[in-house]
Amino acid sequence: MVVQDIGHPAYGCFDLDASLQFYALFGIEESFRLVKEDGSVRLVYLHVAGDRFIELFPGGPPPEERASQGQHSYRHLCLMTDDIEGMVEHLQSNGVTIDTEPKVGLDFNTQAWVKDPDGNPIELMQISPESPQRAIADGTAFPESDILVTPS
């Protein structure tokens, strides 16, 4: 039970289309998105390489507010582990509060949530063989659903 890698940083973006265009300049393209029941975008995963991604959430503060009011677009850091239950037990035994116990997310991965000493959210994730992240890293297709879609 160890952290294997950084899964993704997550940011709130004010203009999703502008952010997608910006990251595309680096060759980092949208790989899939999760949508809400009403069809609006919950988050977008951008594929960097292998099993590394960037997560973008719409609704971030405008850039001018970030500069003038000290707001930030950072949402969370995802750390990947191969034994989420063991990691949670280890953290708890060392006095770390688990904010959200392990549960399966919309992308079929198991996740738990903690905060670092400064209050920054940390997502712990154990990748599922059925997840879109695993399919993309392996170069295989994954089935779309009402909440999981690929770019058109």
Question: What keyword list fits this structure?
Answer:
single chain, 152 residues, alpha+beta, 2,3-Dihydroxybiphenyl 1,2-Dioxygenase, domain 1, nine-stranded mixed beta sheet, 4 helices, globular
Shape: globular
Share of residues in strands: 35-45%
Extended strand count:
9
Averaged pLDDT, please?
87
Stretches with pLDDT under 50, minimum 5 residues: none
Number of domains: 1
Order of helices and strands: EHEEEHEHEEEHE
* Terminus-to-terminus distance: 38 Å
CATH topology: 2,3-Dihydroxybiphenyl 1,2-Dioxygenase, domain 1
Oligomer: single chain
CATH class: Alpha Beta
Biggest sheet strand order reads 6-7-8-5-1-4-3-2-9
CATH 4th-level superfamily: 2,3-Dihydroxybiphenyl 1,2-Dioxygenase, domain 1
Tell me the CATH architecture.
Answer: Roll
Number of helices: 4
Q: What structural class do the secondary elements suggest?
A: alpha+beta
Largest β sheet strand count, sense and barrel closure: 9 strands, mixed
Please compute the radius of gyration using only Cα atoms.
Answer: 16 Å
